Every structure is written in C-alpha cells, then in structure tokens.
Amino acid sequence: MEKILVAVDFSPASENAMRYAADLALFTRSTLVLFHVCELPPTFADAPLVNLVSLEQHAWEILNDRRTELALRMEGDGFIECYVDTGDFFKRLEHICELTNPDLVIVGSRGTSKLERFFFGNHSGKAAEKITWPVMAVPLGYSFTPPARICLACDMSDVRETVPAGLISAIVSDFNGVLHILNTGHPGRHRPEIADQAAILESMFKDLRPVFHFTSGHNVDQDIIDFVAENHIDILIVMPKSAPVVNQVLRHHHTRFLVLHCPVPVVSFHK
Questions:
Q1: What is the pTM assigned to this prediction?
Q2: Bridge partners of 32?
Q3: 107 DSSP β-pair partners
Q4: Same structural domain for residues 93 and 205?
Q5: CA neighbor of 133 nearest in space, from 24, 265, 1, 234
Q6: Which end of the chain has fewer beta carbons closer than 10 Å to its terminal beta carbon, N or C?
C-alpha cells in the first residue's frame, strides 16, 4: 500500500476517519491524502465569485490545520498531501482518485449528507458504478489497531469473475493478517456449487491459506455482523456486484446495513 486518500467533511465521523487513516498510513508507510469538496447549493450559482473563493480559502485553512495535527500524530514520519475542490462530490471524488490513484479511499460511516449519500442515499448506485477504488468506511469512535483477522463475506457465486483476489491479497499481506472467508446461507437451502466455488477461492488465495467458515441463518446481514463480533474480526470486506435493476435495491440495502451496523471498518470493492 503506497497511498491512502481520506474524504473529509470535518464532521465527527470524518475527524475520526482522518485519525484512523493517519495511523494506517504510518503503519503501512503510505502517503496520506486529505481531500475536501466544497459542495455548492443550487442557489450559489448567482452568488458573487468572492463568496466561492472565501469558501475554498476557509476549507484550505481547516485542512492545513488538520495536516499539522496529523503530522504531529505521525511523529513527522509521514507525507501528507491536501486537496480542496468544488462541485459535485462524486465527480470530484472520482477526479481526485484518477489524479492520485490511491490504494484505498477512507470515509467516516456517520458523516454529513454528502458522505452519507456515498453509501446510504440516492447516489449509492452511481458511486458503486463510478468509484473503482477500494473504499473503507470507518465506524465513529473506532481506533486503529493493526488488523490481524480480515474477513471476506462471499456469496460463493462466480468467484473467479467477481472476487478481486489480487487487491484483497495485497491488503491482507500489507497487514500480515489472516484471511477468513465467510459464506452465510439460509437454512434448508442446498447449493451444491458452493464446494466447487470454495475450492476455486482456495486456489486463488493459496499463498494466504485462508480459513473458511460456513454458517446459516434467517438474517444474512445480522449473521455476518455476529460472526465479526464473535470471531474478533478487525476488517470486513464486502463486494457489491453489478446486478439487474430488480436486484439493485436489495444489494445496496445489504451494503448499507453492514456499513451502518458493523462494529469494525468495512472495505467495499465497487467493481
């Protein structure tokens, strides 16, 4: 891992995500990128240009203060970049990712409206289509500890085409962690293909020697969260997949629930 970008809006969740990102960057010897978007209300188009300049200057002042604080937290042993942009949050986030090519994008999972919409609002489908970088949502109040146990929640369907083994392996290797692969199904529903899919996954992650877990329950999302808590998982990885329109709402609800209720950071691979 060489570069970590954290999208900040100066909310409590965002401040916590910045601290987590700084500790993670120090642990992995990565460059830390702080990014803030000044989103304009529709009526701002008629406002004087000086107001826009003042808005950006104020954002720069706060962001530079945060850079100073985080540099002290990192004991001077890290490189921090800052960017401020204006416009649509998702378009500007996509642009900064294209510009900086981060290995991981971090957000706070209880941010103000523009960050909440990234996972929870009407723009979640648009974000899932556009943001091709791994995104980590950090729960409010969660502090960084070196992740030892990383869990991939997998539905065991077309794993060779849908599981980004290289990216996941890189994250697990960066942390020198253990990969746990969890499949949670419904009681009484027999899926004979699971054994074959698990064998393929085992070959895809053979260097990591993953530990497999198979559980069943009536509430898949809650079962995943219970597994995370009971097995002391440090990071949960999920993969929202492209789906027909009829299934998109269910898939987005699945990701939203996990991000809102999971007690540990959730990493989402959007493509």
A1: 0.86
A2: 4, 80
A3: 137
A4: no
A5: 1
A6: C
